[in-house]
Amino acid sequence: MAKNNKKSEIEQLKAEVERLKKEIKKKKKYGLVWEPKIEDVVELCKQKLPVLKEIKNKEIITDKNKPVNLLIEGDNYHALSVLNYTHAAKIDVIYIDPPYNTGNKDFKYNDMYVDLEDSYRHSKWLSFMEKRLKLAKFLLKDKGVIFISIDDNEYAPLKILCDQIFLEKNYIGTIVRRRRQSQANLSKNLSVIHEYVICYARSDKSELRRIPPVINNADFKNPDKDPRGSYVTMPCSNKGGAVYEIITPTGKKYVDEWRFTEETYKSLLKDKRIVFPKKGEGKPRYKLFLREKKEEGVIPNSWWDDVASNQEATRELKDLFNGKLLFNNPKPVELMKQIINLVIDKDGIVLDFFAGSGTTGEAVLNLNKDGGNRKFVICSDDKDNNGGELKIVSDICYPRIKKVIEGYKNLKSKKVKGLGGNLKYFRTNFVDYEEPTDRNKIKLTEQATEMLCVKEGAFELIEENKKFKIFRDTTHYTGIIFDQIAIPAFKKAIKDIKGKFSVYIFSLGDETFDEEFKDVKQKVKLSPIPEAILRVYRRIFK
Ligand SMILES: C[S@@+](CC[C@H](N)C(=O)[O-])C[C@H]1O[C@@H](n2cnc3c(N)ncnc32)[C@H](O)[C@@H]1O
Fold it and tell me: pTM higher than 0.85, yes or no?
């Protein structure tokens, strides 16, 4: 009897050990832990789905051949959800400058400022950032890169959060930037004059571009009139390099450790890139041509101490608004230009979903002075600015972009010429959608037109009636058919139009009515709506 009891006790203990083992497995062993906090803007999406509403009177068009930039006013959780449908895997560069969570009226959660006394302040910030970064990840192209400005308040948690979302292997590095030139006597122990830009690739296909090297042209000469232009000479000897014998034109022999393999050296010699400093004698040196050095560029440094400071950024913004300081802590245009240049050349889309005063937009317009076609998508809420009276988008960001595009008078009353460009202004809007009823699907489709135009980049309305609409851009057409009975009328309308069509057709299910478009198969690409949108929203809002 006692033996049996003992046995069952052992069995129980074994079962308990197994249970505990399973529990331990479930627990996170390494990484970031925080208290998830419910957010109103996220909860809202359980009953209402976000869409875009265009504010037509805020459109700025100066040149139809230039790209159309987008400004989205609203909470960026909603804007990013919409962009997950319209811009999935289309963005080259994301730059964000989120609230640093300093406790000093810079971060609002559920419409309340989070202060230093709030014991959940880090949890709230991480909940907020995680949701947005997860959405942002889907927007990046395979080759895309995300940059996030941050300071010591949240650097460490943000780094680990990004390792989880973008993966540690995609961490490119952290740029340390000098944010002020002068002493900062703001904290007791250290004068903090730097902050960070954390940088992650979307995949191993992303690569930062090389940047132009700092060159002193005077160092480059051309004493032998080399047709390849001016050059400097650099030593061929190199500690730890390949060992072989080099014979100079005068017959002198050197055995050394060399920078190049013997084979490469021979081909450089043949290419007349090797010089011997003392009239055919002396250890060989190789020619480094100015043109090649410029083309080759250099890998960017992680320490940026000479890119404009935040003080300069404040001056730039004041210059646009008659000397008034409307916004605290904007980033400098030059910083944004350098970051964008690290990823794209003359084309590509840049997204900033914490746009604030709109510096990223100005930087893109500025870069396009080189004839480029870069585009921006910027998003910001239109809340009060750091507790002040002004609204961020209506009073600061939008007027700034308008001034930069159309021109303005600066502080010295000098006219600054507009850079030109186009902007479309959208506000996030909502469609009731608690249940997938037919009525709700019809409502969503009716209000999805702007989203579809944004997805296709086609904004010029060329035909409209109750049953369908047709838009055009420089490369193709977009059709939206609200009722399948209008298919024959739509086909008639496009019969004589040459070009490709993206056609969105209303369907309560997933039907694209391929049979009815059989004869124009080459010309049209069909997608069912609202199903295509709902598919994305089901993933996000579950
Ligand atoms: C630090 S500022 C960005 C400044 C910007 N880099 C510039 O140069 O002007 C952060 C901005 O994000 C905005 N913001 C904060 N939370 C947001 C949210 N949930 N949705 C949209 N914008 C938000 C704030 O209103 C603020 O203007």
Answer: yes
